[in-house]
Design a protein that fits this description.
Layout: H1 3-9, H2 16-23, H3 29-43, E1 52-56, H4 62-69, E2 74-79, H5 82-95, E3 102-106, H6 112-118, E4 123-127, H7 136-144, E5 152-158, H8 163-175, H9 179-203, H10 208-213, H11 223-232, H12 241-249, E6 253-259, E7 267-274
Parallel strand pairs: 1-2, 1-4, 2-3, 4-5
Antiparallel strand pairs: 5-7, 6-7
Length: 282
């Protein structure tokens, strides 16, 4: 049994790829277009044309596909989860079959030698991934090494909610403990999310069905699949914007722009540019 399967069996890792496999059944052109808009919204319109793009923890492969659609010269997608790798490979088969500019494989961001063999990329992208590695700060360091001078690093990480983040750690751990824990957490929280959203919309005289139809405008994603991703997402770590800023400043990066959540659970987004290659770096 390999280390990935062992972690899953021990209840220490959520199988993101199985969730993404189900997401592919609802993927359509509108969701792909929204993913493209999401990338260009942070990177700027036309920025990806002719650039190389590394998708760290590619998940469904949606944003690798978006990078290809936006004119990237080369895209490399990798993920630790074998089912996620299969998802990205399926999207490549559907939309860019036999195109050598897009490569997909299994790999770990915690494997420094693997990252070293990949070389550098104009844009290194990792949205909502590095806090699920179990060694977030090591992962944050490793992705920085793939960014050349004047290259961009685009990451998204769970915001630190203090005691509430600690409580969510236990919820996620229970979800991954086995079928009983998964059923308990899913039944309780998915019902809560659905009912609370329904009541909130009614109070505001909004059609509750629009909540789900419009969610695809959030990076092209699916609300229900994101619920499962949130509840099961384990390992689980969090960070503050100040800590991320200091960490990357020490590695020669400057912040270009960010999207910081004022409240609630979710991800803060950071776009950084590498101005300096520290001594000993690539």
């Amino acid at each position: 049994m390999n280390s990935y399967d062992l972690d899953v069996k021990k209840g220490e890792r959520f199988e993101f790829g199985k969730n993404w496999s189900r997401f592919l059944s609802v993927l359509d052109d509108e969701r792909i277009a929204e993913a493209c808009r999401s990338l260009e919204g942070m990177l700027s319109k036309g920025f990806l044309v002719g650039k190389t793009f590394l998708d760290v923890g590619s998940g469904s492969g949606l944003f690798s596909l978006a990078a290809m659609r936006l004119g990237a010269a080369r895209v490399h997608s990798f993920d630790y989860d074998p089912n996620s790798v299969r998802c990205a490979a399926e999207l490549k088969r559907r939309y860019f079959p036999d195109d050598a500019r897009w490569t997909v494989e299994q790999g770990s961001v915690l494997d420094g030698d693997y990252l070293g063999r990949l070389g550098s990329f104009d844009i290194v992208y990792s949205w909502g991934v590095l806090h699920h590695t179990g060694k977030m700060w090591q992962a944050l360091d490793h992705v920085s090494r793939a960014v050349p001078a004047q290259g961009r690093l685009f990451i998204a990480l769970y915001r630190d909610q203090g005691w509430l983040s600690k409580a969510w750690w236990h919820v996620k751990h229970l979800y991954n403990s086995g079928p009983l824990g998964r059923g308990l957490v899913s039944g309780l929280f998915c019902s809560y999310f659905a009912v609370s959203g329904f009541l909130f919309d009614l109070i505001r005289f909004k059609n509750p069905a629009r909540r789900y139809a419009e969610y695809k405008r959030s990076r092209g994603m699916s609300r229900v699949h994101d619920w499962i991703d949130w509840l099961g997402g384990f390992p689980f770590e969090v960070s503050t914007p100040d800590a991320i800023g200091r960490f990357y400043a020490e590695r020669g990066f400057a912040l270009v722009r960010d999207k910081i959540l004022p409240t609630g659970h979710g991800c803060n987004e950071f776009l950084l540019v590498r101005n300096v290659i520290p001594d000993g770096g690539r």
